[in-house]
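Structure ticket #2291
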Amino acid sequence: MIFFIPLLFIMAGFIIGLGAVTVIDIHGFLGRHSSYWTEATTRTHKVTKPLIWIGMLLFTLGFLLVYRGDLLVVQSIIALVMIMNGLFLSFKVSPFLLKREREGRSQELLPTRLQNQIVVSFILSFISWWGSVVIFVLFLMH
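Resolution: structure written out below.
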């Protein structure tokens, strides 16, 4: 029973955070060549961004309470990558999208440089979130 709350935090973090990450990553991928999906991404990220941070917080609290040794170190490094990636998206990409929306330009495709940065962010996001799921499953198997 001692692990109930931390495991609940981890699971809730994955459900909320990974669900939101999946939605916005797919929107961002589709928006690379589509004005419709670019605008949809701008609107959707207003909901997914706080959900991702809530999921990350819950997940981090949970794993800090139950993981030990090398598992804790590896997961902490991955979590740091996830947080840095989230900071880039929250403080660089999000303000850019919101500014364009205020200017009535939310349907315009993003500049190629920013698109390339978002693709790297998508890859980091996918690997780190799903890698964390794998680590959690390995933890449960021991």
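Closing remark: The radius of gyration is 16 Å.
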